[in-house]
Write a structure and sequence with these properties.
249 residues; alpha+beta; Alpha-Beta Plaits; 2 domains; six-stranded antiparallel beta sheet; six-stranded mixed beta sheet; 6 helices; 12 strands; globular
């Protein structure tokens, strides 16, 4: 069965590493019978009204376990993992749920977190019956942790920051090599043509599939004869006032 183990706000602006690394390192401490299938970064509201280290993202580990009995072990090891690696001055939050839980409230909360500022009280209501805990500072990280679980289970957003051997692949790969790993390639050209296995993909040294329709997808644009390039590049964020259909009611 699948468990969602989410971390948020375990770092500080000058600590030298983000929560993403802590989430990826969790694979080293889970039970040997479990498999950390992927780590998904979810982007939440980026606004001057929201306290954040840099980009207001949270991380969710998708873990395959033999059965429900592993829930408590994952919770205890996750808490210990935070206490071992978080930085003083951060506000860590932690959430654990399984695919068999009713995650509808977490999904609604996660979507809301992408558009408006939310509160710890709202996070606790959304996660009723689900493990949710704070481990330092203001505990504001519980907001992002709940949102990461909901959004990752929904499967319509997020960037995959760890999966299989994507961090070890060369800059140029074939489409077939990615498909063998369960990664789907999607042309964003006007005609959305099928891309043959022998075509080349330039991942710009940062292959990070998107989570779309619960599938790992790499959107690409044609860059030459039988060659393609990923459209994702690192982006400098600025605070922009956003309109939203969500309310605080």
């Amino acid at each position: 069965m699948i468990f969602y183990v989410a971390f948020d706000d375990t770092d500080t602006l000058d600590c030298g590493r983000g929560t993403g690394k802590l989430a990826r390192w969790f694979a080293d401490v889970i039970p040997s019978e479990c498999n950390q299938k992927m780590v998904v970064r979810q982007q939440l509201l980026h606004s001057p009204d929201v306290p954040m280290t840099s980009h207001n993202s949270s991380l969710c580990c998708v873990i395959e376990a033999p059965d429900e009995t592993y829930r408590e072990t994952l919770i205890q090891r996750g808490i210990a993992h935070i206490l071992n690696h978080f930085f003083e001055g951060s506000d860590p939050g932690f959430c654990v749920a399984s695919e068999d839980d009713d995650l509808s409230a977490l999904i609604r909360f996660g979507i809301k977190c992408t558009g408006v500022k939310t509160t710890q009280a709202e996070a606790k209501v959304a996660a009723k019956g689900i493990h949710l805990s704070g481990h330092g500072g203001t505990n504001d990280g519980i907001i992002g942790a709940v949102a990461a679980v909901g959004l990752t289970h929904l499967g319509e957003s997020g960037r995959i920051v760890d999966y299989a051997d994507i961090r070890d692949l060369p800059q140029i790969t074939t489409v077939g090599e990615l498909r063998e790993r369960g990664i789907h390639i999607m042309s964003v050209n006007r005609h959305a043509e099928f891309i043959p296995d022998d075509h080349k993909i330039d991942n710009q040294n940062s292959l990070r599939p998107h989570l779309w329709a619960r599938r790992l997808v790499v959107p690409v644009m044609a860059s030459g004869n039988e060659t393609w390039q990923t459209i994702s590049i690192k982006k400098e964020y600025t605070f922009v006032q956003q309109e939203s259909v969500f309310t605080n009611n």
